[in-house]
Amino acid sequence: MGSTTAPWKQLLLNALQSNSHLRHSSYFQLATIGPNGMPANRTVVFRGFHDSTNKIQINTDCRSHKIEDLKHWPFAEICWYFTDSWEQFRINGAVDVIDGSNPDSMKLQQREKAWFASSPKSRLQYLGPNPGLPILGDQPDQGPSSLDPSAGPAAAFCLLVLDPDQVDYLNLKSNERISFSKKIANEEISWNSEK
Question: Contacts from 29-32 at CB under 8 Å and sequence distance 24+?
Answer without folding.
Answer: 29/78, 29/79, 29/80, 30/58, 30/66, 30/76, 30/77, 30/78, 31/76, 31/77, 31/78, 31/79, 32/66, 32/69, 32/70, 32/73, 32/75, 32/76
